Amino acid sequence: MIPLSERTVFPSFQESKWFGLTPDEWLPEIIAIHFDPDHGSRYWLDKEKELRIKALDEIRTLDDLHVLGPMCEDDLRKYPIEHFIPKAFLHQKRDFILGETAGTTGRPKVTAYREDDFFTTFVDWFGYIAQRRGFPTGGNWLWIGPSGPHIIGKAVRPVAQRMGSMDPFSIDFDPRWAKKLMPGTIGSTRYLEHILEQSLDIIETQKVDVLYTTPVVLKALSVRMKEEQRRSIKGVHYGGVSIEKDIFRKFKEEYFPNSVHISGYGNTLFGLCLEIEESATYDLEYYPPGARMVVQVVSTEGGTVPSYTRLAKIVDYGEVGQVVFHRFDESFFIPNMFERDKAVRIAPTPTVREYGVMQDGVKNPSLLNSNDSVVKTGLY
Question: What are phi and psi of 327, to 5 degrees?
Fold first, then answer.
């Protein structure tokens, strides 16, 4: 196999400013940037005035973020992207990569990553864990999923290249359109069939070593592939939607027994939590890359956002609650985002700590049953 390629343009994952720091150690620097009176983010400076707080004085640790209240999702839909980027970076627009969400909870939300943050968050983080998990290098990838404006589509090419591969074979689909198609209808069936036909054409004619797609698509593709084709796959990477334990076991034991399987959990707005260790019980345990991204699990007693006016309490380890993400990037700050998912709170294992991740993770995330919002899922 070809050894992992080394990029020289950006620092490696372990050379990131926040690597090895706790969120409480990293957060003050982010607050100082985004709430700088002269060079900060217009959105957060306006929010500071609206809330009548002094962020530089009042926000020093994660526990202090409650003064900002829950992040308003609609603000990421209606304000220009420049409102969220610190003024200090606006003269460097060519360094930014834009991303939009798939519209699962309504109109798509927008965000941006400075190029070095993008590579660290999506490319080097995967390569860092994949190397330790023995994920194949140098082979051909087949990517079945959305391209731009979704961040996952922009990341897949450099991720494959990071693993010593060429630009992946790609089958594009539009998750926003797929969400408009009711499950089981002729339209949704034909759309999936269109994707499968293209994918099988590649598999029939090309050597494919790695499959990267959503569990929904992979499940449908698996039953169409010949046994020898499934056994020739050396790596499977999952993204987009959560995986049920039973189907994950089937993927690993029956469909792709010769593969290294790595699942990801995250989204365009925040980045990627990865399955760092393989679970003998087929649980999906995910951890964030480091202090730039924090995932918490909070109690749902009293209702879910938008009912909350303050942050809820963190549940104990092993308990289920609602997932809350925080993003602490110099170029973009998103605190207190209450997600549509529930999960079990887990502590970092010795292996996770050995890899430099000291933060909590989440186990077996799935959709949170809530009447507060309409969640549309589909192929992605």
Answer: -120, 120
Give dist(CA 55, CA 30) in Å, integer: 11
Q: Where are the domains positioned within the chain? A: 1-380
pLDDT at 374 over 80: no
- CATH number belonging to domain 1-380: 3.40.50.12780
Find the largest Cα–Cα distance for the chain: 64
Tens digits of residue pLDDT in 187-196: 888 999 999 9
Residue pair 26/15 in contact (Cβ under 8 Å)? The answer is: no
The share of the chain scoring above pLDDT 90, in percent, equals 74
Q: Which residue has the tokens 């991720």?
A: 159
**pLDDT band, residue 93 (cuts 50/70/90):** very high
Angstrom CA distances, 128 to 132, 243, 316, 332, 352, stand at 7, 23, 29, 23, 12
Cα gap 226→272, rounded to integer Å? 32
